[in-house]
Write a structure and sequence with these properties.
- By secondary structure, the chain is an alpha/beta fold.
- The protein folds into two domains: about 140 residues, Response regulator (Rossmann fold, 3-Layer(aba) Sandwich), CATH 3.40.50.2300; about 200 residues, Hypothetical protein af1432, CATH 1.10.3210.
- About 60% of the residues lie in helices and about 10% in strands.
- It contains 14 helices and five strands.
- α11 packs antiparallel against α12.
- This is Putative two-component system response regulator.
């Protein structure tokens, strides 16, 4: 691959000489410029691997020019050689401090030029190969991380299916809670990645119900006090199932499972956490879970209206719910209504398809 060498010298004779000498180097091409202004005008689209810059030039000297060049990150590691007739140590120190890797003394000796520049070109080539290798490694790491993430998301999806296997209504509940939670998280100003992770992990909030007896879990009616205590165990069971995973996504799911029934005032379960001791993810899902539970018909209660449920949650800011999360919930209500409508339409379509299938049978 051809190495491109930037050559800058305001003296036309010197510029031609340096250009001819570069042409003698193996696999090298000169990019000649007769003034610093021309170079600066070409940035940052100018592509070069090594720079040879005359020190004494009008308007910008060589060090000043190179200082402007390296303001662009892409040129920061480019080797630079200064050409100067000045043997003063102050001049050379200024060049070294600017990033010079070597010097050529005027008048330029062709033999010395070839020896010095061949070494520098070899160094630049090695750096380029190293950069290409680093970029290849970065792509491979990104690919591996993406594949790992996809496997984690599939695990979450499969566990969500398992959690709702006994009760289709539970499966729909978990997915609505996930979307409501994401909407609230966005209104809290969390990053897109964090909001996405909360949506993926939130369906796991009730995974612990796999450890609850069917006589309690599927009971068609209000639970007794003893049965309710058994049902409360699902939060800790869910946390225990997921907590020891090395996956950050499953760890988030464990955090949500174990904290989504905690209350801001410390009167929740399983650990009676209060205030900001409750993980933010749990505080978010707590509101989403309550909203969906109240707006959904259950064997032991009718569905509350949207307006009644919103008023209930707003009224409990600072007691049951985190006030900041409640404020975010309020801002998210337009999106939450959209989710409710999409779910209603999907249920209606599924019911129509089921009726059509039964009629055909």
């Amino acid at each position: 691959m051809t190495m491109k060498i930037l050559v800058v010298d305001d003296n036309n004779t010197n510029l031609k000489l340096l250009t001819k000498l570069v042409a003698r180097l193996k696999n090298c091409e000169a990019l000649p410029f007769s003034s610093p202004d021309q170079v600066l005008a070409a940035l940052p689209d100018l592509d070069f691997d090594v720079a040879i810059i005359d020190y004494q030039m009008p308007v910008y000297n060589g060090v000043e020019l190179y200082t402007e060049i390296v303001r662009f990150e892409r040129y920061a590691a480019v080797p630079v050689v200064f050409v100067t007739a000045d043997k003063d140590m102050t001049t050379r120190m200024a060049a070294l401090n600017a990033g010079a890797i070597d010097f050529l003394t005027k008048p330029v000796n062709p033999v010395e030029f070839m020896a010095r520049m061949q070494n520098i070109v070899s160094l630049a080539e090695a750096r380029r190969q190293l950069a290409e290798r680093a970029e290849w490694l970065r792509r491979e790491v990104d690919k591996a991380v993406k594949e790992l993430r996809e496997r984690e998301e599939e695990i979450i999806h499969r566990l969500t299916l398992a959690a709702g296997y006994k009760d289709p209504d539970t499966a729909r509940h978990t997915m609505r809670v996930a979307l409501y939670s994401e909407a609230i998280a966005k209104q809290l100003g969390l990053s897109d990645d964090r909001c996405h992770d909360i949506r993926l992990a939130a369906p796991m909030h009730d995974i612990g119900k796999v450890g609850i007896p069917d006589t309690v879990l599927l009971k068609q009616g209000k639970l007794t006090e003893s049965e309710f205590r058994q049902m409360q165990r699902h939060a800790q069971i869910g946390s225990d199932i997921l907590a020891k995973s090395h996956s950050s996504l499953l760890q988030l799911a464990a955090e949500i499972a174990g904290s989504h029934h905690e209350r801001w005032d410390g009167q929740g379960y399983p650990n009676r956490l209060a205030g900001e001791d409750i993980p933010l993810s749990g505080r978010i899902v707590c509101i989403a879970d309550n909203f969906d539970a109240l707006t959904t018909e259950r064997p032991y209660k009718p569905a509350w209206s949207y307006e009644q449920t919103v008023a209930h949650i707003l009224d409990r800011a600072g007691t049951q719910f985190d006030p900041v999360c409640v404020a975010a919930f309020k801002r998210a209500l337009p999106r939450i209504q959209e989710i409710m409508e999409m779910d209603r339409q999907q249920r209606a379509q599924e019911l129509a398809e089921e009726m059509a299938a039964n009629s055909a049978a």
